[in-house]
C-alpha cells in the first residue's frame, strides 16, 4: 500500500471503547469512516471465565445508545451487573445515604460491564457493518487545516479526511503532534482494582466509602456489583498506601478490603490479582483545532470516583452526532460553526463533572475540623428526599 492515498469523511485514531463507538455512530450517520490504531485491539486478550479486572459502570442512557448502535445486545446478559441502588458512606459513618432506582421510577441506576467484553462487542459490530480499519498501522505524522486532515503512516501511505477524531487516550499522540495544550494535575493517588466473591448477597447495590484520616490520608472505596455474587472494587488511596497494599499477601489484602467495607458482605474471596493505575486530572480548553476533534480521554480525564470516564467519552460522541445531525445541506462535516458549537456544549458537561469529582476529592481529602463538620452536615442533608432526588437524577442522566 506504499504511497497510496486513501480518502474518507471521518478518520478516527484510537480503537478503544470511545473510538470504535465513534466509528459506529459516524457510519450510522452515513459518513465514510476509517478506524486507525497502531495496534490490533482484537489482540488485547480473549474473554474467558475469569472476570476482567477492568470494569466500567455504564449509565442507562449510554446503555440505550450502545443498543441503538447494535452493540449492547451482543453482550452476554449473564456477564452484566446491574446497580439497583447505591449506598454512600462518609467519615466512618455506619448509616449511608441510600439511592434507590425505584425512587426514580427506573429499573436500575446503571450497569457494570467488563472492558474486554464491551470492546469485543463494539469491534464485532464494526466488522459486521464493514467499517474500514487500519490496525497495526503506526502513524508517523499528522497535519490539519480547516478543511482537511492528513495522516501519514510508517509504510509511507496517507489517509486524508474531512474530520479527524482523536480518540487515542490520555497520552494522545494526535494531541501531542498538533501541540494542543493539556492541563494536568496528579491527585497523588493510585486506584487499586480487584474482584471478589462475597459471602452475603450484594443485592445489586453499589457501595462507596469516603474516608479521611491524618495517618493514611483520604481514600475512596467503591464496591460494584457483578453477577454470581461477585463484586469489583476500586480503592483510590494515596500512592504510598497503594504500594503497601499491593505488597500484601492475597489473604491480608482481602482482609484489608473487607475491613475497609465494614464487613457488610461478610467474608470475601479474592479472584485473580489486583492491579493499579495512577490517578490524574487532565483537561484542555481546546477540544477542536481546525478539523480535529478531541474525544474521550484525549480530551479529559477525571477522578474515577463517579465512574464516569467512559460515560463522558460516549457523551462526547453522542454530542457530536447531535450537532452533525443539525447541519444543513450547505454545511460540510468540518464546518467551523458546527465544531465550535460542539466545543461549547461539551465544555459545560466537563465543567459539571469537574465540579463533582474534583470538588468531592478535595472535600474528603481535608482533615480540617470545619471541613469535617461541613462533610457531616452535607451527608446528613443528602438524606432528605429533595436532595436525594437531585442525586438520583444526576446519576441516571449521566
How does this model look, in words?
By secondary structure, the chain is α+β, with helices and mostly antiparallel strands. It folds into 2 domains: 5-49 and 116-184 and 282-360, 3-Layer(bba) Sandwich (FAD/NAD(P)-binding domain), CATH 3.50.50; 72-115 and 185-281 and 367-397, D-Amino Acid Oxidase, Chain A, domain 2, CATH 3.30.9.10. It is built from 10 helices and 19 strands. The chain has helices at 17-28, 60-68, 115-128, 173-177, 239-247, 250-260, 309-325, 336-365, 369-381, 385-397; strands at 5-13, 33-36, 55-58, 81-83, 85-90, 97-100, 110-114, 132-134, 139-144, 149-153, 158-166, 183-198, 205-213, 217-226, 230-238, 268-283, 288-289, 292-294, 300-301. Strands 1, 2, 8, 9, 10, 11, 17 and 18 form an 8-stranded mixed sheet that branches. Strands 6-5-13-14-15-12-16-19 form an 8-stranded mixed sheet, with helices on both faces. The chain has a 3-stranded antiparallel sheet with strand order 3-7-4. The protein is elongated and about 60 Å long. The two termini are 43 Å apart. 42% of the residues are buried.
